[in-house]
Structures are given as C-alpha cells and as structure tokens.
Amino acid sequence: MTISILTLVALGLMCGSELNVAVFAHPVLNRQPLDVHIPVRSSFAVLLGRVMPFWMSGSTLLNLFLLLPFEHLSGPAWHFAAAAFAIQVLAIPFSLVGPVPINNRIAKWTVASLPENWKAMEQRWDVYHSVRTGILIIAFVLLALSFRTQ
After folding, report:
1. Above pLDDT 70, what percent of the chain?
2. What burial class does residue 5 get, using C-beta atoms within 10 Å of its C-beta: 0-12 exposed, 13-18 middle, 19+ buried?
3. Which end of the chain, N or C, is more open, meaning fewer C-beta atoms within 10 Å of its C-beta?
4. Residue 94: which domain range?
C-alpha cells in the first residue's frame, strides 16, 4: 500500500505542477513586460528542465512497481494502473520530441538574445505542454480509480 500512495502522490503533485504552469504561471507571465517575462520564463525552463525528467520517469517507475505481482492488484485495479502507466510511458517520448527541445532553447534566452520567432516557440511549447498535462491528468484519474477498485 505504501508504493500505491507514493505513486499517487508523485503523479498527483506532478499533474498539479504541470497544471499550474499551464493555467496560472505562463498566462501571468505572458502579460508581463519583456524584461520580466523572458528572464522568468527562461529560469522556469532551466529549473523544470532539470527536475521534470526525474519526476516524470520516477512517477512512471513507481507506477510500474504497482503492476508487479508483489503489489497484488485485483483485475480491474491492475487494468486501470496499467492504462495509467501506458499513458505515462507515452508522455515521455512525446515530451522529448515536442516540448523539451523548445524548452532547451527557451532556457538560453535573454532579452538581448531573443530569436525572431520567440513568441511562436512559446505558443508551440504551451500547446505541447497543455496536451501533455491533459494526458497526465487522465493517467492520474486512472491511477486513482485503480485504488478505488481494489
């Protein structure tokens, strides 16, 4: 049961963090002047670029542990956890192909070194991020349902 709770908390906190960025942080940043917007967005890109790989892979690995025989999940609970795991696994290559390359560019930005298409890059990152956040929230709901059906 400890792994179950740890898995749910790890994925739930990650979803909360991702949702915060999508719904609150970036919309507020987008209303700031460039001399505030760019350094903060770049700082977030650096910080979350370091943290999220461990958080995403760690919560996915915890979910994998739930699927192993020693956790003894019932049939429906196992299926919900397996679906959540599959979504988490798919979110990793999606991240590596979509938002991560853009995030790595944003992390290097300064007000003086903005590329010409910086606004389009931010918008594309925000779209990828919203898609990833939505699918991770679905994974979280499925994981929570797996505990409900045990």
Report:
1. 99
2. exposed
3. N
4. 2-148
47/18 Cα distance (integer angstroms): 13
CB 136 within 8 A of CB 87: yes
Nearest-angstrom CA–CA distance, 58 and 136: 14
Q: For residue 114, give the nearest of 17, 34, 58 by alpha carbon.
A: 34
- Paired tokens of 136: 């991770």
- Count of domains in the chain? 1
User: What is the DSSP secondary-structure string of 38-95?
Assistant: HHHHHHHHHHHHHHHHHHHHHHHHHHHHHHSGGG---HHHHHHHHHHHHHHHHHHHHH
Does pTM top 0.90 for this prediction?
A: yes
